[in-house]
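User: My collaborator sent over this chain with a note saying "see what the structure looks like." That's all I know about it. Can you take a look?
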Amino acid sequence: MNTIYTVLVLAVAALILYGLSYMQKKHMSFTKRVLTALVVGIIFGGALQLIFGTGSEVITTSNTWINIIGSGYVRLLNMIVIPLVFVAITTSIVNQDASALKKSASSIILILILTTAISAGLGAGIAGIFGLDSSELIAGQAETARGEALETTLTEFQSKTIPEQITEIIPRNVFYAMTGQGSSATLSVVFFAAFLGIATIGIRKKKPESAEAFKNFLNMLHDIVMRMVTMVLRLTPFGVFALLSRFVSTSNYAEISRLFEFVLASYIAIILMFVVHLLILMLFKLSPTKYLKKASVPLSFAFSSRSSAGTLPLNVETQVEKFGVSTGIANLSASLGTSIGQNGCAGIYPAMLAVMIAVGTGVPMDVSFFVRLILITAISSFGIAGVGGGATFAALTVLSSMGLPVGLVGLLIAIEPLIDMARTALNVSGSMVAGLVTAKRLHELDMETYNKDFSDSEEVSA
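Assistant: Without extra context I'll predict from the sequence alone. Here is the result:
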């Protein structure tokens, strides 16, 4: 009987995928297709759990097949992230003035760090308002094991000093870094690409022919990689549907309800930080309405995939094509934003945990506590991996620096995916805001493109 039900579920999923394909054939806007996939994925996943129940064999077997689409799409995105970062950084250097690049990089990093500090303050404040207290939570056996695992992870993480972690950004083997291994892989590729671009600029006077030939090669490579990006992005609605339906159908709502207060507080803090992003845009005379409309696709995918790195191609495409940000700044802000100054994972989450655990363990919280918390959170936001789980490393760093027990992070393992969805969307928003503000300050933002009302022209180019 379970086999019959599984076949029926897969048949319905196939019909939904066909419907998304039909919408594409009818040239419906890319945004409409992605948002439709998101809503349908939530409804489909919720219906599966309502009909068959949590942990059902039908759901497990069905998701095994549906996940081919979701995981396959994420793997395709991860496949092109490193090539995209490499060609994006190198071409942005060889095609623009070096001094302008220095200004844009400094501005982007500063904005990312400042917004992370603000998000940490918001997270700590909301945790205090809600009176979050870890002493009220009772860890189960699995969560205790998780806490012990986190203690081990912290020991391994702290075996390297901060200077050593910064030094690791310089790759010993660039080809190993390009495999995407390690939490600093993206930054290592950024470093090598910048080094290569600067070297190309350095030989322009002595060997102009070589410099020009290599520049043309990089630009050709950039065109080819961007074509690959376009091919993958056209699959976004299908990936979003598969990812959301799997998440919703397998979520443990009993555990979510037990920790509902923390979930609610987290989402309120994240929403407030989104408002801060909009206020920053308004401060630089950029329409928040236009931003929300045009950023809906990368934010929706970030919410679905829980991967800042996986959202990087959509991030760059949105900044350049819909916002009018110069290619160099868009590539830089999107790339740096996957590892530096993540507002959700490295800002709000560690700060909220720190306050909740401090209350539960009786640590006095005065003004100096919050000042130290915000500073530590902002500084430690360097190098957080832009994939699911990066927030754990941020929490480990902040909690240990504050002298708080890290094992209690295991209390929230049941609701981690639910919170991570919104956190990741906030991370991506932070990187786009950094790119927009930097481009506006340096006069590299096409305001006509930013203010243009995209509708059917939102379609990803064929």
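A starting point for your reply to your collaborator: The radius of gyration is 22 Å.
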